[in-house]
Queue: 2 jobs
Job 1
Amino acid sequence: MDALHEFCLRMGDNTLVLGHRVSEWCGHSPVLEEDIALANTALDLIGQTQMWLGLAAEIEGQGRTADDLAFLRDAWDFRNLLLVELPNGDFGQTMMRQFLFDTWHHAMLTALAGSSDDRVVAIAAKAVKEASYHLERSAGTVIGLGDGTAESHARMQAALDLLYPYYGEMFAADATDTALAAAGIAPLPESLRASCDVRLRQVTEEATLTLPASSFAHSGGKTGARHTENLGHILTQMQWLQRAYPGATW
Amino acid sequence: MYAQMVTSEAADDSPEARAFQARIDAGEKIEPKDWMPEAYRRTLIRQIGQHAHSEIVGQLPEGNWITRAPTLERKAILLAKVQDEAGHGLYLYCAAETLGVSRDDLTEDLLSGRMKYSSIFNYPTLTWADMGAVGWLVDGAAIMNQVPLQRTSYGPYARAMVRICKEESFHQRQGYDIMLKMCRGTPAQKRMAQDAMNRFWYPALMMFGPSDKDSVHSAQSMAWRIKINTNDELRQKFVDETVPQAEFLGLAIPDTDLRWNEERGHYDFSEPDWTEFYDVIKGNGPCNVERMTARRKAWDDGAWVREGLLAHARKKAGKVAAE
Ligand SMILES: [Fe+2]
Ligand SMILES: [Fe+2]
């Protein structure tokens, strides 16, 4: 089914691109414990990528593998949210991006437990445990830094202001989403919004942060219509070996 | 090794020091609350600290390739490996803290250049084959040193080594596996593998530290059992184990004098260029500046995060106390 194929790409590209971004911190974090935790998050995300893109390749049925999808597609075929391709910025910006993503990701994976497709249920069941741990950590860090010093508060507010316009894309539906919902495979994105908004309000309040008044939302990532300039640079790095040495096995 | 040139201090000759030495000779473990000579404590802080710093700086050359790993599986394995190294750093800092220094103090000493880390991490990783060479040769050399250190006299250090050694064999295996894939791959991959071998062979031999005849601090450390084998013993063992592995891979070792010595039952091999070694130790290796800049940047940029989290923890503790 085309919609399911598209859905797997969306899920897998999110975890692939975010995993790439998070892994950029390896060896450069503010404290050793954070270095270990960020590597762990990246590792979970790459593991989930293998499952989602593996299923996408299987549905496609053209003999391609998860690696082919990850390393040999160009930017316009990527279906990740704009949020996850944004640069790391400072540690606060990275953790705010993670928190916004985790909030949606956890809600989505939880809902997928009721999917009509067994393969989706199986992947979601494994991934939701990881996502709930990621959410606990990222929410805790946003609260700790928001409610920390004047400087950490200011940095977290700046991160929220910068990233909030990328929050809405997670809840915008297109024809693929409608088809998936009709087939009982995945929930309508907007059905996740209320519970995500509640969590977002709770956490930002405890973090003494102010949600931006404008609810403007950028879009174009999950449909592939218009990514940010960042994605091309990510792929340039990520796909380089596969592109430079076609046909080699590693 | 990861702790290459640790300055050891001489023991005094007091009755306590003699009783302490007798405990070590009897194979007893020294624990944090036990009496110990100041010289033993200070030497151990330097050694464990240097070892910990090596794990942390050692993340950088491999971290350099995580975003460019050629497959999802290789990316995951490399991430897990580099994460392990951070964990090793953590175990070792904790072991050092039992001797009365803080992790922050040790970090400041690294960043100011007062403490060193292993020379090997000042070499660049230039191709994907370097991920193979580092795992196979560098972790391989580390294992040679760390396995005997599981029996070192200081309890917390020995126990940290037991945990670390469990993970190191996976590190070496994944490196060897990368090399095997490269050596059985395309001509370009084979070329990369041989190039990595050419660049990492001598730096790997340097990891064991200077030759025994030039190693002035070994005797006291060996008496205290914080060093178990001499540098040359471990280097020989490493060469003897590595040569057949290189042959299986079909890689040439960049040493025309390397040959099996029937009489000794060991391989004869060329010494590394010790001038280069001392240059690297003094800060003139190819990547010393980059490595220290990266560590300083991580520490300085992270200051607001550490302060923020601390301030929040204090506020929370205050609220709980007020309730
Ligand atoms: Fe290690
Ligand atoms: Fe290792």
Job 2
Amino acid sequence: MNPGSPDPKKRYGLTIETHGLTKKFGHQVAVDGVDLAVPPGSVFGFLGPNGSGKTTTIRMLLGLASASSGTVNLLGMEMPGRFHEVLPRVGALVEGPAFYPFLSGAANLHRLDAATRHTVPATRGARVERALDQVGLAHAANKRVHAYSLGMKQRLGIANALLSHRDLLVLDEPTNGLDPQGTREVRHLVRSLAHNGTTVFVSSHLLAEVDQMCTHAAVMSNGKLVAQGSLADLRRTGSARVRLLTPDGGQARTVLAGLGLDCGAGDAQAGGETLLAALAPASGAPSTRTDASQQAGSGEILAEDIVARLVAAGVRVRGFAVERESLEDRFVALTGEGFDVAQ
Amino acid sequence: MPSSIPADIPGSARTQKVAVPRWSGLSLMQSELKVLFGRRRTWALLLALAAIPILIAVAVRLSSGVPSGRGPAFLDRITQNGLFVAFTAMLVSVPLFLPLTVGVVAGDTIAGEANMGTLRYLLVAPAGRVRLLLVKYAAALAFCIVAPLTVALAGAAIGAALFPVGPVTLLSGDVIQPPEAAVRMLLIAAYMAVSLAGLSAIGLFLSTLTVVPVGAMAATVVVSVVSQIADQLPQLEWLHPWLFSHYWLGFGDMLRQPVLWDSFASNALLQAGYIAVFGASAYARFTTKDVLS
Ligand SMILES: Nc1ncnc2c1ncn2[C@@H]1O[C@H](COP(=O)(O)OP(=O)(O)OP(=O)(O)O)[C@@H](O)[C@H]1O
Ligand SMILES: [Mg+2]
């Protein structure tokens, strides 16, 4: 397929669309009213700490588990009702790879490819070979899977997702257990697939990974979707702050307060005092649910205006910077700092 | 939106609209048979079954002859005619050995895939839940055909190797030649395959209830033992005709001239009933089950 040309099949709006998707296990609500919106052609990172409901959501997307309530649309069709039209166009890795240990890697792929009526047997051998090649397993194709290492199994799992042409790939923690080389290859693979028009939905708890390969992301916390949008939007939502180094702390505080900026206790050091003050988020607030407090700033204040005011008031400015909250700060702010899993 | 997972509807109007052409409806069946009969465990089960007639034949050969009327039926005739090794071994394997191997295979069908995690990949392939269930049951039936045949063939082979082979005297007193005796042997194997079909359906259903295959296997074997015990208790006589093991030992009718088909027919009908009930239960369970393994 040409990367530029529109795919005639893509008459649907969103590749993945859920409304109020909920899954209860007994009394526990593992997934709670999730509204996902994954645009076609995106590489969509699905972030969340352990136990936040990523895999459970993916199981419902693919029709493995039924939703307690809510709807799922994949490729413009309702799931799980139209699974036999949807799933042949979806490649998936769910909660780690799983294979017949007593079969070889290639035999496993043959088996899973033969499981559906929608693949062409005549091309099976060639497709298996190509998929194994894509993940660097060509030399281990005839080895039994029980003799595979963790990373080799993971690669075979990805190869299975790549067996046919897919419009959507759902990959649950695809780089789990891979060496740095493998991780880089997966990133590269995901990018090249996206370039060829495949939408990739990839779950992870590694922020750096999402940062490096995704165009969009959503953040799960405790079963709830707490943020969603393009990566640029998510970064912008994070509050910015000014960092000011000055020997005239008291005066600076007064000026900043006059601008509606609140700064906490200063940090005394050589050359003066470092003051930190939160800025209001920039314009064009994206469609994310954020804490009200972050939007409570007093309109837009430009950095140069702050400096001009400070200087006009006679504050000696020795250092000044506008800092954006990193994606990681944002992730922690959204999902909580604690190490314990939520439930 | 339906909160349960609907069944695969082959040939429905919707399926016709699928952009991807439908190929190879049988490829999953082929693959299933290849996996089942290609794996070592299945071979071990069949070898264990083949060991039964071998053990019998060797024991008889080494001993100084079996006094008439002792041991399993036919045992005393082996020294005169090696074909009776096969008949004896088939008779001996009915109560425990065949149900044991069938329990292993049928109990493993769904639970084994769930346990390995391959079930979720088969389902997202997508195999279709109903199609997968049918293929799994068909493969279990294939094993039910192969298992008694293994006993029969191993028995005939070892019998012919260690003893003379000659005309066989039937239970009705008539005498048939070895080629016809071979046909009767196949008839008995077919009778046993039918006998095991109901147990396979029970195993398939139990297999949809758990992700621990050993649990489903053990439960299936226990069910077969309980059914046979219940069949022995005179207090439960009203229940006897409804027990799936009730006609298991009725294959002697295949050794009459002419063949008596009554017990074959009753057995087939009873097994069909079990297939219907437990097949439907397996369907109801598996098509609505959350695959979380
Ligand atoms: N089969 C199950 N029965 C009961 N509760 C379950 C089951 N599977 C998952 N849960 C619960 O659902 C919640 C979400 O689990 P899930 O596997 O979706 O998390 P996750 O985001 O994929 O985590 P991880 O990053 O560790 O893979 C957890 O609290 C878990 O305990
Ligand atoms: Mg998970």
